[in-house]
Amino acid sequence: MSSDEIPAHYWKNLLKLSTSVQGETQEIPKVLDEESRKWLEDVMKSLVNNVDPERQLISIMSSLKCYAASAGDLSEDDVDKVLDLVDRLDMLLQCADLTKLFVSNCGLIVLEKFLKDCKDDEINVGFALIISTWAENNPIGQDILRKSPLFSLLLDIAVDQGKAKALRKSAITAVSATIRSHIPSFEDFLALNGHLKLAEIVRNEVELAGKTARTLTSISFTLNDDEKYRDSLKPTVCECYVELVNKNVPVDEIDYIREYISSSVEPSQVDENLRSQVLDCVNAELGREIEGDNIRVLQTLRRKFAIRQAG
Asked: Could you tell me which PANTHER family the record lists for this protein (predicted)?
């Protein structure tokens, strides 16, 4: 079917509707003249192009490919148009069924081109969030992403202190969406030392520490049912907890991290030095103004991590 043809089911639905109306009015149907037929076809084509997701995606990608050719030199008007296309593409890619069509229309190449060359942070944040939308709970999309240069590019953006904070946060989210619940992507992440690179952010950058530590914790949580890797990030998560407590920077994410360590980490899964550091941080938190369930979690952690490892 060409892009100008109207899918048969649209005509069938129109026929069904018109037949229903005729049954109610008892009017004799009229044969359309040429002008009326042409008008109806134009209306139907417009309807199809506006509501058919595949056609919308093809149209959006066609426009983005044009803008990608000069991604490093967009006018103010171009930026506004690209942002509108980004919003529309993000909505469409919530449907995993469009994955193959997106890729076949140079989707990954276009995203990479913008993220490398575009100087507008708002556009780049939008494209990074599109990757998150597309990869989340989409094994096919995750597998395609991990095999593309985009995966390592996102990780490079996440750790690049010269990039805008908003873009780096979006890149961290995109990396997380690509990895979570997808072991092949996680293995590539380890091979790129991604966990060490993100942990470095927690150690050295207060503004991104909470977000990054929670991301590592979330990835670790999704590994709980994997026999091979379920313990692989637990020491890193504990190190992140120690860093956050020692920095004494109030971040909402620390509650989530603390809860994860309490429920999923055993002292035997970290070395003695880290066990002692976690315990010191738990005691330090108990000396601060902590309320509600957090007190219960901290008390559980103190009992658990007070036990020294044998030998």
From this structure: HSP70-BINDING PROTEIN 1, PROTEIN FOLDING REGULATOR
Residue position matching structure tokens 């994955």? 99
> Using CA atoms, how far apart are residues 166 and 37, in angstroms rounded to an integer?
52
Provide the Cα torsion 198, 228, 254, 298; round to 10°.
Answer: -150
> Which residue range(s) make up the domain with 297?
201-311
Q: 108: domain CATH number?
A: 1.25.10.10
* 73 has pLDDT over 90: yes
Q: Are residues 34 and 110 in the same domain?
A: no
Distance CA 194, CA 155 (A): 7
Question: What percent of the chain clears pLDDT 70, i.e. is strictly above it?
Answer: 83
Residue 252 confidence (pLDDT): 82
CA distances from 135 to 47, 138, 141, 196 (A): 29, 5, 5, 22
**What's the token pair of residue 190?**
């380890």
Q: Are residues 57 and 182 in the same domain?
A: yes
pLDDT digit string, tens, across residues 167-183? 999 999 999 999 999 99
State how many domains the chain has: 3
Tally of CA atoms within 13 A in the half-sphere of 67 that contains its CB: 29
Q: How far apart are CA 305 and CA 164, in angstroms?
A: 38
Domain co-membership, 42 together with 149: no
